[in-house]
């Protein structure tokens, strides 16, 4: 077997390992009656936000429609990629896949923590992480301007099996992006979220480079033959994380405002039934529960900043 073939086989093994969620959550597996209830809630909300699994139209009645759920806590949750987006370049428009399940996760977590949530619910004509003047950013600004708002958690889906090296056995459960110059509040919340992840026995890292494969399942390499890595740090000029960080600074919140991009392994999100082959329904339910529990505890941790 060639190096490329072996690397891809290891990737497939990581994907299967990640889907067997019970392997790395023994404390919760089969012991908490809330697991099935949370799973059903997330299923119901995702179906309402995206009827019949149509991630182009979603539940939107007009272009770029947003669902804004106002809460009284310090936290803003965004699910900017909850439905399919359109990324516009100079010569073409590229349809970007939805981060399936992030909409339901944002809404349910907001309900349970009194947070504010902004969710892109369909008919998206642009991309909030690409377009400087996207309507979602305008909605965010109205929330961040409020005196009580002290944190922004941008929720995204992470493909299972993401790893830093071809030989890694397990993909990352959670990757946190905190940019290049995080505030004191961002660093404090990041520390809390790493602790929460560790307590839930999730594989978590911060600004972590990871390898990727092309459409032919070949490991993408640098010119010198080493694996090429990418990083989801939320540091791009137009990302919603960068937007909230800069706006908070301009408003004088500075080091008192936390802005974190949260990349969540797809097995920890409510997915369409055929998106991931879980070993058993208990794994599927536990995965969604772990994703919910992680974000819920992260939102609650903002109160301690």
Write up what this structure looks like.
The chain has 305 residues and is α/β, with parallel strands linked by helices. It has a single domain (3-304), classed as Aminopeptidase (3-Layer(aba) Sandwich). It has helices at residues 3-19, 34-49, 102-113, 135-144, 184-199, 240-250, 281-301; strands at residues 66-69, 75-79, 85-88, 93-96, 116-120, 151-158, 174-177, 204-206, 209-211, 229-231, 258-265. It has a seven-stranded mixed β-sheet with strand order 1-5-2-6-11-7-8, sandwiched between helices. A hairpin with a 4-residue loop joins strand 3 (85-88) and strand 4 (93-96). Helix 5 (184-199) packs antiparallel against helix 7 (281-301). The N and C termini lie far apart (51 Å).
The CATH class turns out to be: Alpha Beta
- Count of helical stretches: 7
Shape: globular
Sheet with the most strands? 7 strands, mixed
Structural Rg = 19 Å
The name of the CATH architecture is 3-Layer(aba) Sandwich
The count of domains is 1
User: Which oligomeric state applies?
Assistant: single chain
Order of SSEs, N→C?
A: HHEEEEHEHEEHEEEHEH
End-to-end separation = 51 Å
Q: Going across the major beta sheet, what is the strand order?
A: 1-5-2-6-11-7-8
Give the overall pLDDT as a whole number: 94
Share of helix among residues? 25-40%
Strand-residue proportion: 15-25%
Reported by name, the CATH topology is Aminopeptidase
> Given the helix and strand composition, which structural class is it?
alpha/beta
**Spans of 5+ residues with little confidence (pLDDT < 50)?**
none
Q: What is the count of β-strands?
A: 11
């Amino acid at each position: 077997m060639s190096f490329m073939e072996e690397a891809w086989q290891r990737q497939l093994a990581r994907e299967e390992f990640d889907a067997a969620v019970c392997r790395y959550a023994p404390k919760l597996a089969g012991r908490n009656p809330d697991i099935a209830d949370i799973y059903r809630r997330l299923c119901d909300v995702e179906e309402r936000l995206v009827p019949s699994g149509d991630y182009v139209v979603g539940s939107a009645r007009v272009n770029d429609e947003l669902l804004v759920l106002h809460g009284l806590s310090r936290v803003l949750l965004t699910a900017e990629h909850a439905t399919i987006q359109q990324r516009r370049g100079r010569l073409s428009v590229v349809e970007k896949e939805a981060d399936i399940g992030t909409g339901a996760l944002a809404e349910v977590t907001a309900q349970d923590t009194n947070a504010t949530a902004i969710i892109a619910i369909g008919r998206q004509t642009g991309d909030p992480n690409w377009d400087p003047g996207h309507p979602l950013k305008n909605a965010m600004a109205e929330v961040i301007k409020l005196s009580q708002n002290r944190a922004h958690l941008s929720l995204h889906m992470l493909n299972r099996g993401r790893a830093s090296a071809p030989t890694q056995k397990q993909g990352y459960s959670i990757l946190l992006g905190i940019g290049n110059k995080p505030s004191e509040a961002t660093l404090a919340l990041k520390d809390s979220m790493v602790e929460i992840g560790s307590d839930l026995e999730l594989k978590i890292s911060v600004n972590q480079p990871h390898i990727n494969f092309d459409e032919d399942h070949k490991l993408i390499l640098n010119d010198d033959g080493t694996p090429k890595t990418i990083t989801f740090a939320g540091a791009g000029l137009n990302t919603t994380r960068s937007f909230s960080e800069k706006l908070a600074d301009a408003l004088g919140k500075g080091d008192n405002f936390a802005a974190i991009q949260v990349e969540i392994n797809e097995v920890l999100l409510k997915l369409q039934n055929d998106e991931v082959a879980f070993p058993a329904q208990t794994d599927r339910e536990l995965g969604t529960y772990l994703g919910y529990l992680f974000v819920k505890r992260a939102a609650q941790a903002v109160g301690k900043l």
